[in-house]
Amino acid sequence: MSIRNLSILLICIMALFLSTPSWSIPTLWGVDEDDGELFSIDDYTTLGGFTSYGDLRYDDGGTLRKVGNHIEAFTLDSDGTAYMALNSGLGGFSESVLLSFNIHDAQTASHNIVSILGTIGIGFDNPGDNISGLSIDPVSGNLYALHRDDDGDVLDSLFVLDKSDGSVLSSIGILSGSGQDVRSGEDLEFDRLGNLFVTDNADDHLYQVDPLTGSILSMIDSDEKDGISTSVKIEGLAWDFENDRLIASDDKRNLFAQLSLSDGANSSFGKISGLTDVEGIDFLPSSVPEPGSMLMLGLGLLAMGRKPRRG
Question: How far is 293 from 71, CA to CA, in rounded Å?
């Protein structure tokens, strides 16, 4: 059994032990792409407890400057570190910069300053190319990036990035398979078991994708707007680890919604005044063992399962 499959099995086992529903609603975090505004929502089902932390800033040689617009991807690690992809020049870097900020340090009374980790090492051949999604695989701990290619003849693709500097650790492959492909991917998100979902604005489809190859395994939802609005542009995805739900943000009417992981039965929670283009949202992962811990547990279980040799 491969390490990844073993890890998935162990997560399933842990999920059984932790499956008693608490029905608590975790805090949803995100960034408004139009102005780089960091925010949180205590209860996304009612959109209650909204907090704005203001425009994110960066230190430019001792001068604090606004990050500005074009943060189009946002994800949270288990320690509270938010990774963001900024698809415009910043602080002397070329397009597509990986930023980080720990949400535990977020303040409303002072500026929140991001760290500039480095240029994301994916070569862009069109001005419209960008990193439209980031998500962390709970099985491997790897930071995945969705590269949306602006060339209509080129399919979108998956990469794994180095969390320390944004460089490419591996190129996974293009998003294609099962008679489908992704040409305008807006975001990607892992669930607690390591299943990977990608939303495609070209046709309002939600796909399940193999994180090892980029192959489309199945079309989960062929019409994301059903139950939400007459038209949608799903730009942000977030997995609620407490309740096993896929939450989304829509840029057509600035709605927050739940995707049912099936055709139809999606639902809208409404919108928050002042948020105009939310392209990155996420929850703090919970109840997911670290990959190293899962591996040690797996090795222990395998050892316990071995039959002793007879002398």
Answer: 33
The distance of Cα 217 from the centroid of its chain, to the nearest Å, equals: 19
List, as one string, the DSSP characters of 219-265: EEES-TTTTT-SS--EEEEEEETTTTEEEEEESSS--EEEE-SSSS-
Written as six digits, the tokens of 3 are 């390490």
The token duo for 64 is 């604090």
Please check the confidence at residue 28 and state whether its pLDDT lies above 50. yes
Range with the poorest average pLDDT among 8-17, 19-28, 191-200: 8-17
CA dihedral in degrees (231, 255, 154, 93; nearest 10)?
A: 150
Phi, psi of 8 (to 5 degrees): -60, -45
Residue range 205-264, pLDDT digits in tens: 999 999 999 999 999 999 999 999 999 999 999 999 999 999 999 999 999 999 999 987
Cα–chain-centroid distance for residue 214? 16
CA 10, 76, 244, 170 torsion-angle sign: negative
Q: How far apart are CA 140 and CA 11, in angstroms?
A: 12
**Is the sign of the CA dihedral 174, 180, 185, 187 positive or negative?**
negative
At 299 the pLDDT is 44
Distance CA 150, CA 287 (A): 37
The pLDDT of residue 7: 57
